Structures are given as structure tokens and as C-alpha cells.
């Protein structure tokens, strides 16, 4: 599968980077990598429409915009170029097989990246990972909705969860998650291909959804029906400026807000039911 990488440089990063991430997400871009002075955004080549992004050139603080085709076979090289380990304090390092150094963290998770996705969302992975260490997951039933690489599902098993369901709508993510589950010698995780319809009729003690604002809002009614009474819901994948909207929407479906954690401009929220 070939992708287009749209590269944007700014003379003033804020607020334009956040604005364009939101806009491009709506336009079908699937992942974002925040660079020092700009933004790299990825979309499947057959979904790329030049006319939809021409307005970006008219933004005063955009100094340069370009795009390049990234062939399927180049993804691993792109990951090695862009992907750094994720460190969650002294507790966890999330690394790739090509990271050969010794780490001091007490737990390691290895993922085999297959595409240059996720590097812009280390903050959300960090936020949820940190909180999972603080929860009691022993023998808990966990949902990792939109599992992606499967890293949070793997962490849940390592922290004692007895049953983890990890669906994703993207076939590539589904296959990558299966590979990473095996790579980390996990046996309590069921990876599945599909959307929120897969979780209807199931019940979980802890629900993790590291997705985006609009999908979270669409899923709240299903999440409410499958989370056990007193269960915890951890959501992330959105900016801190979206937290109040999500809090109000979650309340409509019976979720009780507990608190928000922030890292840079990203947020994670915890609810109970």
C-alpha cells in the first residue's frame, strides 16, 4: 500500500499545527508526525486529493508545503528514521527491534513497526500507559479499542489482565498487532478486525480507546453498554482543548468524569460507570 506524505513548514507553529491536524484528520489523513517546525501527515495515495489541501498555501504562517510518494516497501526505513523509543518514567520503554541499546526501565515492550504511523502520538500512548500502571488490572477484562500496534493491549497483559480484546478497523494494523502480540509472548489477547459492532454483547472492566474525538463521540453509546458497573474508561488521542466537549458527551451516556491528565497539548481522560 502506497502513501502520500504531506510536509508543511510553519513560521509560527501554534496554533496552526493543531488546526491543520484537525482539518487533515477530517480530510482522510491517517497519521501525523510533529516535526520541529512543521508537520508531516500521511494519507493513502488513492485518497489524496490535491485540491482539498491547496488552501493551506494561503495560510500566512505556512512557509512551505510539499508532498512525496512513499512506496510500500519503504515503510521500515521510514520508521527507523522517525521512530524513537517511548519512555514512561522508570516503568516502561516501548521500543522497536532495531533499538539495540540497554534500557533502565523495569518493563520493555517491543513492537515491529510496519509503517510510519504513531510517532506523533507518543504523548497519548505515554498518558494511557502511565495510568495503566496506576490501576489494578489483575484478572481484569480489558478492551483496547482501535488497538493499532497492540502496544496497550500488550501492556495490559503484562500488568495482569486476564482477558484482552483488541479490535481495529485497519487490516494492516490488525496484522501488525497480531505480530506484536506474538513478539511479546502474550497469550491473553484476542486481536480482531472490525469496528465497534464487534464489542456489542461483551462486557469489560477496563476500556481503553486511544482514537480521536469524533470517533470517541460516535462510540460512547456502545462503550456505555459494554463497560461493567464501576468499570474504568480511559480515552485519549485528542487535544486538551477538546476535553470539555468529550466530558459533556460522555456524561450523556452515563459516564462519570474522574480526571484529566495532560502532556504537552494532548490529553487523557478517565471516567467510571
Question: How would you characterize the overall build of this protein?
Answer:
The chain is α/β, with parallel strands linked by helices and 273 residues long. It folds into 2 domains: 3-70, 2-Layer Sandwich (Alpha-Beta Plaits); 129-272, Rossmann fold (3-Layer(aba) Sandwich). The chain has helices spanning 16-26, 75-82, 122-134, 151-158, 171-183, 213-226, 243-251; strands spanning 3-10, 31-34, 38-44, 62-70, 86-88, 92-95, 107-110, 141-145, 163-168, 189-193, 204-210, 227-239, 256-263, 266-272. The strands form 3 sheets. Strands 10-9-8-11-12-14-13 form a 7-stranded mixed beta sheet, with helices on both faces. Strands 2-3-1-4 form a 4-stranded antiparallel beta sheet, covered by helices on one side. A 3-stranded mixed beta sheet has the order 5-6-7, covered by helices on one side. The chain is globular.
Amino acid at each position: 500500500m502506497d502513501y502520500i506524505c504531506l510536509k508543511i513548514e510553519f513560521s509560527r507553529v501554534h496554533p496552526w499545527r493543531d488546526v491543520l491536524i484537525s482539518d487533515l484528520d477530517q480530510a482522510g489523513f491517517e497519521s501525523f508526525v510533529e516535526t520541529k517546525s512543521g508537520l508531516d501527515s500521511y494519507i493513502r495515495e488513492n485518497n489524496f486529493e490535491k485540491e482539498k489541501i491547496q488552501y493551506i498555501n494561503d495560510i500566512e504562517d505556512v512557509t512551505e508545503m510539499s508532498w512525496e510518494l512513499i512506496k510500500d516497501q519503504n515503510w521500515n526505513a521510514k520508521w527507523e528514521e522517525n521512530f524513537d523509543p517511548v519512555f514512561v518514567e522508570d516503568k516502561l520503554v516501548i521500543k522497536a527491534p532495531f533499538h539495540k541499546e540497554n534500557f533502565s526501565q523495569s518493563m520493555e515492550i517491543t513492537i515491529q513497526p510496519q509503517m510510519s504511523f504513531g510517532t506523533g502520538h507518543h504523548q497519548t500512548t505515554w498518558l494511557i500507559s502511565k495510568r495503566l500502571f496506576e490501576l489494578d488490572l489483575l484478572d481484569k477484562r480489558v478492551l483496547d479499542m482501535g488497538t493499532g500496534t497492540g502496544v496497550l493491549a500488550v501492556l495490559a497483559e503484562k500488568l495482569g489482565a486476564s482477558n484482552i480484546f483488541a479490535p481495529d478497523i485497519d487490516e494492516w494494523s490488525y496484522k501488525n498487532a497480531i505480530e506484536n502480540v506474538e513478539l511479546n509472548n502474550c497469550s491473553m489477547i484476542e486481536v480482531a478486525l472490525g469496528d465497534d459492532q464487534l464489542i456489542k454483547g461483551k462486557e469489560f472492566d477496563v476500556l481503553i480507546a486511544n482514537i480521536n474525538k469524533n470517533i470517541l463521540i460516535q462510540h460512547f453509546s456502545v462503550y456505555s453498554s459494554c463497560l461493567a458497573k464501576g468499570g474504568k474508561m480511559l480515552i485519549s488521542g485528542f487535544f486538551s482543548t477538546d476535553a470539555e466537549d468529550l466530558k459533556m458527551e460522555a456524561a450523556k451516556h452515563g459516564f462519570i468524569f474522574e480526571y484529566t491528565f495532560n502532556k504537552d497539548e494532548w490529553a487523557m481522560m478517565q471516567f467510571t460507570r
